[in-house]
Amino acid sequence: MTAKNVEEPTDLRGAGLKAMRDALPGVFPDGDIDLRDGRLGEELVEIGLTSVWGSLWAREGLGPRDRSLVTLGILIALGAETELRTHFRIGVTNGLTRDEIAEVIYHAAGYAGFPAATAARNAAREALPD
After folding, report:
1. Residue 52 CB burial class (10 angstroms; 0-12, 13-18, ≥19)
2. Where is the Carboxymuconolactone decarboxylase-like domain (predicted)?
3. Complete DSSP assignment for the chain
């Protein structure tokens, strides 16, 4: 058990695969998959699968929609445009509207700065074309 009796999944890889498939429907095939590509740093995706998707996204405590809001705010503040493009799509899958995504960007401008918000807006426009 962890904080406030929120249980963490015991099979972090399996929980991570489920969470990723739920967030990105149709992107990952069914069954066990190998996310390594044989190139430098190939295990980074596997590490993210267990530590981020399995340990965090699969936890109880916050629903996927709330996790998307938090994640978008953090990624905007970090200026992580590549990840933002994916997470804007995940946010829509998790129930965020385009107007709510715009509000997250506007709100981030006050805390993370206008350049970060502008970069996030551009990433959102790429990820979610009109």
Report:
1. middle
2. 53-126
3. --GGGPPPPS-HHHHHHHHHHHHSTTTS-SS------SSTTTTHHHHHIIIIIIIIIT-SSS-HHHHHHHHHHHHHHHT-HHHHHHHHHHHHHTT--HHHHHHHHHHHHHHH-HHHHHHHHHHHHHHS--
Say if residue 30 is in the same domain as residue 53: yes
pLDDT tens for 121-130 read: 999 999 999 8
Q: Residues for the chain: how many in total?
A: 130
What's the structural domain count of the chain? 2
Q: Is 16 in contact with 53 (CB distance < 8 Å)?
A: yes
What pTM does this model have? 0.88
